[in-house]
TrEMBL record:
Record keywords: Cell membrane, Membrane, Phosphoprotein, Transferase, Transmembrane, Transmembrane helix
Annotated membrane topology: Multi-pass membrane protein
Name listed for the protein in its UniProt record: HAMP domain-containing protein
Cellular component terms per the entry's GO annotation: plasma membrane
InterPro entries assigned to the protein according to its UniProt record, in alphabetical order: Bact_2-comp_sensor_kinase, HAMP_dom, HATPase_C_sf, Sig_transdc_His_kin_internal
Domain HAMP: 309-361
Residues that span the membrane, as ranges: 12-36, 287-305
Coiled-coil intervals: none
PROSITE patterns per the UniProt record, alphabetical: HAMP
Subcellular location: Cell membrane
Pfam name, any one: HAMP
Domain of life: Bacteria
One GO molecular-function entry: phosphorelay sensor kinase activity
Length: 587
């Protein structure tokens, strides 16, 4: 058995692996706790924002409705037939009285039916001792209620007043003398049941509700399901409220309250929601967080033991064997009965000296094969990114019935994907590559023809037969659309040009976007020209790597600031025909 000094244990890979496991797991546990609290806070704030928006919108709608009722009330006050009844009733015969009353009843009924918030409309005519209402027609004037509503209306500065258990709108018409009673008084009684129904959508969550409060009138109207005692508690608390949102404990249970106030109506609208309703979706998350924490502690113990047995001890054997080899002992093999990765390492260690030259030769061949495999892998990473957009374009053309453009578009799309899907050749002629890139640009023009202009030069004849890796130009155009031109508020401009100077060919893709600053451009150049160490490679790094592997040093993708103000991506191809590295197609 291998013994490890206690004082050196902290320097072993075992200790580092266990520590690393803790470093990975503990932040996840802490992150879970943070996410739980953040989710609760975020959910509460989001619910409060939505509730306040709903409350404000409801009060605005109610204010518009009240303003409309006040306009109708004013029209009734100016009604000539009503003035005629109040002043000349005694001089009218029965037919005239009946006609005037019927006309007034028709007016009151029409107004009542025009708004769901009206329970009844009363016209109290003191001079003839009558009350005319939309629901009860003509009846004797109830002087006690008349004096009560008149007194409330005269001393209240609010538009809405309370009589009994409902809110009222009152307006009076006086004669020529100020000390006389009004000729008549128009009273609109609001329907509490309709107000409750309109407040129903404000309580969308279980056990939630809303309360309408008229502080000056001492009126409170609660939606269905309001817990007992909640309005009284809230009215007391709202007087000392410093914010539109607060948490209130009522009856041993916490509620989230949101308040919106209308100065025009002197009304406050309150919504409430039990805190448990906010936390309910997070209960399972909390439970699983604890399960995860306990499981993680258990996993740490199992992981530490397994690492020591299956990694640490075999690794120590390998280290000791290397030390013996450094001391000149080359004839002591490592014995390992298990057929695992360490068994493979031990076997290769035992054969290392006798197969050194073979391994060197294999390494050389593997490098050549790796280069070709890397080229194949890089090329396979190119994927089309605008399939969904193509379907949306087809959908739009189908809706407009533009069959000619549908036919043209499907042909272009078929040619595009046929080029993408072909697997026979790694390289194509530059004319084929440019034809594919131009087709992609024409497809994009169907989407952005109104705000993106394109200048696509003709490919020179002496460049058409050059053999290039497939899909090196179209991804650059796609990159310009996706990261620059699509998000521009102004008109975008894309330009594709070609140059041939001796043994060097240039393909330039430029735009006038402003999506990258100078610092970002420098960082992007560094990433493109740096070593390909990551398993994930962006599109432009892909293109640069493929061209570099195909044509060697001096070729590749070079980024700079375009004269248009945006990004210029130049694909440079070094053609070395004199050295036998001919990159042109056979004619």
């Amino acid at each position: 058995m291998i013994r490890i000094p206690v004082n050196s244990l902290r320097h072993t890979i075992l200790a580092r692996l266990v520590l690393m496991y803790l470093v990975v797991i503990l932040p996840i546990i802490l992150l879970g706790v943070y996410l739980y609290n953040w989710s609760y806070k975020n959910a509460s704030e989001e619910i409060s924002r939505n509730a306040l928006a709903q409350l404000s919108s409801y009060l605005e709608g109610l204010n518009r409705e009240i303003e409309w009722l006040e306009i109708q009330q004013f029209d009734i006050l100016q009604e000539s037939e009503l003035h005629k009844i109040a002043v000349t009733w005694e001089m009218m015969d029965s037919a005239e009285k009946r006609s005037s009353v019927n006309y007034l009843l028709h007016r009151l009924t029409s107004i009542k039916n025009s708004s769901p918030y009206i329970k009844d409309i009363y016209v109290h005519i003191h001079s003839i001792d009558k009350t005319i209402s939309a629901s009860n027609a003509v009846r004797a004037l109830d002087r006690q209620k008349y004096e009560e509503i008149r007194s409330i209306g005269e001393r209240s500065g609010s538009r809405l007043v309370r009589q009994g258990d409902s809110l009222q709108l009152t307006a009076s018409k006086y004669g020529g003398k100020n000390d006389e009673d009004p000729l008549y008084l128009v009273q609109i009684e609001l329907d509490n049941d309709k107000l409750k129904d309109s407040m129903g959508p404000l309580g969308a969550y279980p056990e939630s509700g809303s309360i309408l409060i008229a502080e000056e009138a001492g009126f409170t109207l609660s939606s269905t399901g309001t817990p007992p005692g909640l309005p009284d508690e809230w009215i007391k608390a709202v007087k000392n409220l410093d914010d539109n949102t607060m948490l209130l404990d009522i009856g041993g249970r916490e509620y989230h309250f949101n308040l919106a106030h209308s100065d025009k109506l002197s009304l406050s609208l309150v919504s409430y929601l039990p805190e448990g309703t906010v936390r309910r979706p997070l209960i399972k998350f909390n439970l699983w967080a604890w399960v995860f924490a306990v499981t993680s502690v258990f996993a740490i113990v199992v992981y530490a033991f397994s690492t020591y047995r299956y990694v640490h001890r075999p690794l120590l054997s390998l280290v000791q064997s290397f030390r013996r080899m450094e001391g000149g002992t080359l004839d002591i093999p490592i014995r390992h009965e298990q057929k695992d990765e360490f068994g493979y390492l031990y076997d290769r260690f035992n054969q290392m000296l006798v197969k050194l030259q073979t391994l060197i030769d294999q390494d050389f061949k593997q490098k050549l094969m790796m280069q070709k495999a890397e080229l194949k892998q890089l090329q396979s990473q190119i994927k089309p990114h605008f399939l969904y957009n193509s379907f949306f374009i087809l959908n739009s053309l189908a809706k407009t019935g533009d069959t000619d453009r549908i036919e043209q578009f499907t042909i272009m799309l078929g040619e595009y994907y046929r080029f993408i899907a072909r697997n026979g050749e790694d390289h194509v002629t530059l004319s084929e590559e440019i034809k594919h890139a131009r087709m992609y640009t024409e497809i994009q023009q169907l989407r952005f023809s109104r705000r993106i202009r394109v200048q696509f030069d003709e490919l020179p004849v002496d460049m058409q037969r050059i053999k290039v890796p497939r899909l090196i130009v179209q991804p650059m155009i796609e990159n310009a659309y996706e990261h620059s031109l699509e998000s521009m508020p102004d008109e975008g401009f894309l330009r594709v040009t070609f140059e041939r100077t001796g043994s060097e060919c240039l393909i330039k893709v430029e735009d006038n976007g402003n999506s990258i600053d100078d610092a970002g451009l420098v960082a992007l150049r560094h990433r493109v020209s740096g070593p390909a160490e990551s398993h994930e490679m962006t599109g432009i790094m892909n293109i640069h790597r493929r061209i570099l592997l195909t044509y060697g040093e001096g070729s590749g993708l070079f980024l700079s600031r375009s004269s248009l103000g945006g990004l210029q991506a130049a694909i440079r191809i070094k053609i070395r025909e004199g050295n036998g590295d001919v990159q042109t197609a056979n004619r």
